[in-house]
Design a protein that fits this description.
about 280 residues, 2 domains, five-stranded mixed β-sheet
Length: about 280
């Protein structure tokens, strides 16, 4: 009996140790890179400024799920051709590609310039990849990219990805909302743009009353699949030129769970977050 008790204790101990070592949420590593690539020995002719700060998923209990998430993130950060490369080399390989393309596209133009010309071919590529909600059920990730290739201005784009940690697949609007959700959800997004305009600093005395009186392209305002999940809301992002002119920048819209209650599918993947929010 004593021997059996000892063996049982050892078995419990090993099980506990194994469980504590299992990665129950997605673990990431950070990769940072900052460098300026000059177009020629004459530094006044222009440079490519690269600034990259990204998190890359490296561990999770289910390796197939991890691989699926990593593949999607690497593909959207750098491109499909970088998926097979090791995490500690992918950023360097990507920046080398940026440098090669920058020089190939601009060196011929520099050579055509008059020696007295003061024109500079300055480019920028800034990239951030960051974790958002991360628990035992969902992993959300954001990508913020700014590219300037000459001209009046650069372009900033932000995109979000929400993963089901049971399957590694992206969570879509069809996973969350009932059939035919589009019209009602689009109208709610428009209402929230008006409501949230009252909270914008400087807009207290002149909030939006009617979108038709603004520069928003109202017919373009609809659910676009670009959202991230928090523990109390679903937040949509609209990039420049998507629903408004460039000068209006990014538009973010917060949809609290209680405003979406009649649109949610029963027992959808974020139902546990909705219930938790109700109890607060």
């Amino acid at each position: 009996m004593k021997k059996q008790a000892i063996m049982l204790f050892i078995s419990i101990l090993i099980t506990g140790l194994f469980s504590s070592c299992t990665q129950k949420t997605v673990k990431t590593v950070e990769e940072d890179f900052t460098k300026k690539y000059f177009l020629s020995s004459d530094t006044t002719k222009g440079a490519l400024s690269v600034d990259i700060h990204v998190e890359i998923p490296v561990a999770y209990a289910d390796k197939m799920v991890l691989n699926s998430i990593r593949k999607a993130i690497i593909n959207n950060l750098f491109g499909e051709e970088f998926v097979p490369h090791a995490n500690d080399s992918v950023v360097q390989l990507f920046t080398t590609m940026l440098e090669t393309d920058y020089k190939a596209n601009n060196e011929p133009l520099v050579n055509e310039l008059d020696t007295a010309s003061s024109y500079s071919f300055n480019n920028e590529h800034t990239l951030e990849g960051f974790s958002l909600l991360s628990d035992k059920h969902i992993y959300s990730y954001g990508i913020d990219r700014y590219i300037y290739m000459g001209g009046a201005h650069g372009l900033n784009n932000r995109n979000y990805f929400n993963f089901d940690l049971k399957t590694g697949k992206l969570i879509t609007e069809n996973d969350l909302f009932i059939d035919g959700f589009n019209v009602e959800l689009s109208e709610l997004i428009k209402k929230r743009i008006i409501e949230e305009s009252k909270n914008v600093k400087g807009a207290e005395t002149d909030p939006i009353l009617n979108l038709e009186d603004t520069d928003y392209w109202t017919d373009s305002i609809k659910a676009n699949g670009n959202f991230y999940i928090t523990d109390e809301s679903i937040n949509y992002i609209f990039n420049p030129y998507e629903i408004a002119p460039y000068y209006m920048g990014l538009t973010e819209v917060t949809l609290p769970f209680n405003r979406l209650s009649n649109l949610f599918k029963p027992d959808n993947i974020i139902a546990y977050l909705v219930e938790k929010q109700k109890k607060k």
